[in-house]
Amino acid sequence: MSTTLSGTRVLFNGVAAPLLYVSGYQINAIVPYAVSGRTSVDVEVEYAGVRSEAATVPVLLSRPGIFTWDGSGRGQGNILNQDGTFNSPSNPARRGSTITMFGTGGGEADPGVVDGQIVAGIRPRTNLPVSVLFDLAGPSTEAEVLYAGGVPGSVAGVLQLNVRVPSNAHTGDAVNFTVVIGDQWTWSQATVAVR
Fold first, then answer.
1. Which of 3, 36, 48, 163 has its CA at a distance of 20 to 30 angstroms from the CA of residue 18?
2. Contact 167, 96 (CB under 8 A)
3. In whole angstroms, what is the distance from residue 116 CA to residue 34 CA?
4. What is the pLDDT of residues 161-179, one digit of tens each?
């Protein structure tokens, strides 16, 4: 992935980040692995050779977030059912089936990958423990996490979670869940349809 798009760069302590998207209102960048081990980092945006003032932001080992259909982090998650079809209220996952969630913020991966690398061959797995909890309104039910790591054909930093829906999970069009990686959890309100 390129570190320059439309004359724009994003720098983390001077290291250029791979860029996915740039517009006048939004920049989507992948935090470089060079921030690993730091507690904070200075972020600058550079356009046409002119840099912004640095903003100091904290660095965490992980900060998981699940992609949702409308991009808000709320509502229907970007989730595939076991048969590869999109999960939705009209096409819910069955209890006990395996679903695939997509997101970001899994932290360092093993084996190590290069910033902006497209994942192929051996898929990097997150180094931190991962758990997924369903039914947040009542007693939580922990799902079995079958895989947590890179997505083949996608840029390093995108996270895939293969999860078995608990057999006793609540059913409904919008079942809440949270993803915990290391000691950080999703703050989004992504949901999954379960029957």
1. 163
2. yes
3. 12
4. 999 999 999 999 999 999 9
Q: What's the number of CA atoms in the CB half-sphere (13 Å) around residue 172?
A: 11
What's the CA gap between 29 and 11, in Å, rounded?
10
Q: Does 15 score more than 70 pLDDT?
A: yes
- Average of per-residue pLDDT across 89-108: 95
Q: What is the pLDDT of residue 107?
A: 86
Q: What is the mean pLDDT of residues 134-143?
A: 81
Q: Could you tell me which residues come within 8 angstroms of residue 26 by beta carbon, excluding any fewer than 6 positions away?
A: none
* Neighbour count for residue 165 (Cβ, 10 Å): 28
By the 8 A CB rule, do 102 and 151 touch? yes
- Closest Cα to residue 66, out of 91, 83, 87? 87
Q: pTM value?
A: 0.87
Q: Which amino acid belongs to residue 14?
A: G
